[in-house]
Amino acid sequence: MKKDGYENVSRKLGPNEIGLGWLTGITEWTTSKAVAHHPHSHPHIELIFCLKGTLSYEMSGSRMVTVNDGAGVIIPANTVHMLKGGMDAPCERLGLHIEKSLSHRRRYAVFTPTDFAAFHATIKAKALQPFRLDARLQSAVKELVSLIRRPSLSSAERGFLRALCCTILYYVSDTLSRPLAAPKPQMMDEAVKFIETNYSKQMGSDDLIRYMGYGRTQFFHLFKLHTGLTPNEYLVRFRIKKAKALIDAKRRSSSPATIREIAKAVGFSSASYFKTVFRRYTGQSADGTPSS
Predict the structure, then answer these.
(1) Is beta strand 91-98 parallel, antiparallel or unpaired with respect to 64-68?
(2) Same domain, 155 and 23
């Protein structure tokens, strides 16, 4: 197992270049193709922002965490994780490597040790739960990326960089400390539209979560508030609704589709599984026989 996982890093600033005392490094990855990292861990919290593409991390214990562009995630200290190679490309991501306490050897004091301890506790408590970047946080992150991509920085620009890092830490802590907001109807409408557009494909809730860019638990909660169903339930019910329409058309047609063809048309991988699910939801067999 590698210790740092800095393969494919495009740019990196170390603690001496930053001087804040709580930030051990800033890393930026920009890749034009799908890449994978070896399993690794860090002695500090890693705050990751996905700016383009999709990041799929496998944690120790085989847990998967997926983050889309415009979202972030916190990797806890000393947690073995690896970036899977199946992610979308091109991809851009930014990482802030955050110490567990504020060093007394910091050159530029912005937060007090008490301030930093409160921020650290907040982000640590929300580890492995992807979160959306609001407009202010996205703006600060993009500004920071723009700065670290410059070949050299003036003294004033380095001061601005430190100010941005402090601003990002505050915004992340503020975002994560808020209670879960009710979903905006148009946002969940977009999720419903995705299901109803792609129901005929081999898709599941993970595809929908990646598309929407939310953590699994948060997204399931918001989707159920909006529809009364989990994403999987909504998908299955919509597929059965479409299958019933095809079966009705089959009965009226002189050259009807087979059950296998109908199952495939509405996204089921096999006719036998489709018939089992159809009977469960409708009380009838797919050929119209009442359930006993």
Answers:
(1) unpaired
(2) yes
Please determine, for residue 208, whether its predicted confidence score (pLDDT) is greater than 50: yes
| pLDDT over 80 at 179, yes or no | no
27 Cα distance to chain centroid: 19
**Distance (Å, rounded) from C-alpha 1 to C-alpha 39?**
6
Please state, in angstroms and rounded to a whole number, the distance separating the CA atoms of residues 214 and 68.
8
Interatomic CA distance for residues 227 and 220, integer angstroms: 10
- Cα distances (Å, whole numbers) of residue 187 to 75, 184, 192: 27, 5, 9
Same-domain check for residues 59 and 173: yes
Residue 238 lies in a domain: yes
What global pTM score does this model have?
0.64
Token pair listed for 282: 């409708």
The answer to whether 207 and 64 are in contact (CB under 8 A) is no
CA distance 159 to 19: 10
At 36 the pLDDT is 64
DSSP string, 215-229: -HHHHHHHHHHHHSS
List the one residue out of 152, 175, 212, 157 whose CA is nearest residue 47.
175
Same domain, 188 and 172: no
Q: Give me the residues paired with residue 92 across strands.
A: 30, 52
State how far the Cα of 182 lies from the Cα of 173, in Å rounded to an integer.
Answer: 19
Whether residue 133 is contained in a domain is answered as yes
CA distances from 57 to 75, 85, 125, 189 (A): 10, 9, 19, 28
Residue 5 pLDDT level (bands cut at 50, 70, 90):
low
Q: Which domain holds residue 193?
A: 181-292
CB atoms within 10 A of CB 197: 9
Q: Supply the CATH number for residue 204's domain.
A: 1.10.10.60
Residue 1: inside a domain: no
